[in-house]
Structures are given as C-alpha cells and as structure tokens.
Amino acid sequence: MLAATAAGAALAAGGPALGTAHAAAPDRRPDRERLRALIARMTLPEKIGQLFVMRVYGHSATDPDPADIEANRKEIGVRDAAELIATYHVGGIIYFAWAHNTRSPRQIAALSDGIQRAGLAQPTPLPLLVSTDQEHGIVARVGAPATLFPGAMALGAGGREADAREMARIAGRELAALGIRQNYAPVADVNVNPANPVIGVRSFGADPEAVSALVTAEVRGYQEGGVAATAKHFPGHGDTAVDSHLGLPLITHSREEWERLDAPPFKAAIAAGIDAVMTAHLLFPALDPVDDPATLSRPILTGVLRGELGFDGVVVTDSLGMAGVRKKYGDDRVPVLALKAGVDQLLNPPDLPAAWHGLRRAVESGEVPESRLDESILRILELKSRLGLFDEPYTRAGEVDRVVGSRSHLAAADRIADRTTTLLRNDRGLLPLSPRRHHDLLVVGVDPASPSGTGGPPTAVLARALGELGFTAEALSTSTGAQPDPAPERIAAAVAAARGRDAVIVATYNVGRTSAQRTLVAELAATGVPVVQLALRNPYDIAQLADSGLSAALAAYSWTDVEVRAAARVIAGRARPRGRLPVSVRRADAPDQVLYPLGYGLGY
Length: 604
Description:
One of its GO terms (molecular function) is beta-N-acetylhexosaminidase activity. By secondary structure, the chain is α/β, with parallel strands linked by helices.
C-alpha cells in the first residue's frame, strides 16, 4: 500500500513516515514523541491489550471453521481473531500449525491481512505484530511450499556464517511476504548438556564463540529480510535436564560459568541490534537466588539484561502456558509479575481473560503504575514502526507467489544442507554407496512426524531420494517419534526384510541406554548386511550404538526433507560429508571420556 493507512492517521499529522515497508531499519529511530502522543490517547484497556501476544484458532480472521470457533469460545471466550482484537485489544497474534493458522501461503497472507484490518478498525487503530516460531529444522510452523532450511545445529555443523545469514534472509523475506513480521529465532542457547530434553539440535552447538557468530549472522539475515529477530531463551537454556514445558529447570552454573558459557551469544545478538529477547522459564540462582523463574525475575531481566548488557529492545516471555512459569503463581498473577520484572510482551497466556483482568486489577490498584505500561508499549510501537507496519501493514499483492518457496530459495536450502551432514564412522570405506555395488537397499527405522508437514515419513523420503540417485530402495517404518522404540515384531520384520540386501540404512531417534533401537541395529548387523546409521535428531545416538556392529554412521540433525535428502546425496557420493560436530559426543559407558570431539567429522 502506498496510501496512508488508518494506523498512520492515528498518529499526529505531519512529520516523516515512521517506517519503511517490509524492511526493518534498526539504524533509523522512530519518532518517539509522536508515539508517546499516540500512547497518551489510548485507553487503559487498549494499553493492557497491547502487551499481549495471543494464539487464536482458524485460517481466517472473520470466517474460521466451526471447530475453530468452538475452540476459540472455549479457550478465549471469543469467536475469531477479529473478535479477539475488538475485545482484548491484543497487540500481537502468534501463528501455530495446530491452531490451523498456516494451511497455505495465500491463506496465511489473507489471515494476516484480516488481522490487520481488524486492528485498524478499532477506536485507536493500531497494526498488530504477527509472530511465529520458525526456527527451521525440527521447529517450523509454516510448512511447504515455503522454503524449509536446516536447523540450528545443522548450520553449526556446516560452520559457515554466510549460510546462516543467507538462510535467515530468505526465511525472513518469506515470512514478511506472509505478513509474519516477528520470528522467535534464533536460539541463542549453548547446548552444553547432551541430555537437554528441550533445546538439543535447536542450538547451534556447544561452543559459545561459534554459537555467537551464527546468532549474529541470523540476526542480521532476518533483519535484512524484513522480520524482527528474537534471541532466546535468556539467560540461557542450554544446560537443563528438565523441559520447561513440563517443569521448572534449574541451572547450576556459577556467575563465572554464565559469563563464559551462556552470556556470549546474547551479548553478540545485542551488539548485532537484536529486536527482541525471549525469556526462559528456569531457575538461575547465580543470577537471582529467589525461587522464581527468570521470566519473573527483576534482577535477571532488569538488572542483568537491561542494566548490565544494555538491551533496550522488546523483552517477550516464552509461552505463559508452560509449566515452568505456572508452578508457583496463578494465571492472573504471572503477567503482573513478568511486567514488574521487566517484560514487555506477554506471550500466549493459557487463560487470556484471567491474565488480562489480573493485569488490569494490578494497574487500577496502583501495584503497577500506568507509566510502567507506557514504557513497554513504547518499545512495542517502536518495533512496529521500524518494521513499517504503520505505513504498510498489509501484504503485497503477488509477492506471496513470487517469493514463498521460489526456485532460487529451494536451491539455496539444498546447497546449504549439503554442507551440514556429518560422517562419524565409515569402516572399511563403505560410504559412499555405489548403485553398482550396493544397488538393493533397505531403509528402516524411526519415522517422527514431520515438523512441517512436508514429504512424508523420513524413511520414505530417504528411500525416494536414493531411488532418484540410481538405487533400488525400500522403506520400512519400525516406529514413530512419539514411541521410537520398535516392538519385537517390527524388529523381526526389519531383520527379515534386510536379508539378502546390499546394505541397510537405519534411521535412529534419541537412542537411550535401554532403547530397543539398540536391539534393532544389533540384529540388523548380525545378518551380515552392512548397516549405515543415520541420526535423525541428536548426534549423540552413536554413543549408544558404537558396539552394535555398525559399518557407518552419520548425523543429519533433523528429519525434515531438506536434511534427509542431503544425507541421501552424501550416502550416494553426490555430495561430500562436510559437516563437523558442533558438540562433543561422550562415551555411553564412560561419560567422562569423549568418543567424538567437537569439530570431528570424516570426509571422502
């Protein structure tokens, strides 16, 4: 749109435009006085709502499916996104695939435009900040035909800052074309704990310096693509043994260890001009001895993040529906305490009416000064202004078809993926396989559900990719990601199918000490057929399989199509294994000993 919008009209007349269309401008300061004048005209309900970023069910802002209407009424008390905006004046909406927000590119763009129309139709017309978690790899809310890239640890294995920047620039451009202008990425956590149940391959790796470099590259890439980047999860979620979705993790690092291990990527992100920082729902006694998660900690958010690190951008909570932040306080009190700690955006409360009214009571009672709301709203409106949302809140006609999943973008994803697959073992030079010597292949193993709804089960994707490279490859699924351990009858079927083959490729997923996947691999190897193991998620699987009779082992860092296809090209010798471990792999039977060190990787 070139004409002035209702959002622009809500600002004081005259003066320069506040932003540039579809391009973040971190070096250009919005007109704070005009934004403050706009805030002064907002009612208290409008101010409270501006702090919330909320989920909503449905593919349309005004005409969702009946089941989504029912879900909205049950969880939020509204019919659709337009009613959510009119009732609670929310400042942002987060998209999820499970909320049926992301069916297709054109539908997503239409939903974004409908949300903006609803926001601009309010008494104080304001654009909304539409966001999502599009980390790539195992976390992707927008699926094909959008371009899907390798995830963070795969990029860590590739080790190229240029690849991380190109990936984020392309991903940002596609998100912006869909009307999604804030991405909750990159993950700035340093994954120093192999048992971490929630970060793992979502992290670039275990080396703070390398993670910092790749975080910086992605921050700049997303901003070049026109999307606000968000570094997460402050003060660092890399050394946890508890999933904060399910419980409250404890970080036992000393202050010195935090400075050395956890802080560098966040410092780098701030130096790169990061737009937002997401909090972590975890205890960090070295930074705040009070028994409250970092999301509710004023010493951590205001004292360390804002005071010591000098961050003056938007602080957003991780989802307020996670158990890690709900264990001690009610859903009506958590937003109040988060705001008092230094948070600006309150993300996805499980009970929006309780959260919204709880915050209003806190303001009306004087517990939270209205001026405190104004501080956060100013930061949020400045971000919207830098993104150009006051001038051009709507998607551009035709840009979705030109940009999303374009041929050049898909080629870039494959090119980047070819630099990530890591070869950990290759006894007697089994790999690369040759269609002349190893023509008849069996692909077996775990089939996690695709995080982006793309080409089907990973074993089928891998078999199909190998077929296109000249092999005969049959796929046989033995289990799922939800239940990765195969039943005895599935193991027996896989072993029977393996006999007489030229080679077997077995896909593994989070292999543990008692995992039946170990039995599967050992019994496949006992047939005498060469067995190639491909870790679909964490590269640590090989520690549990080192003595299982494997002939070769690779790490793909994800089961998404782009990484599985890249692994197929490596197996077939169409691409060289150029990835290097961004973490160390320790022995399963002696965790104090390193089996494969950080930086390890074979080639051919």
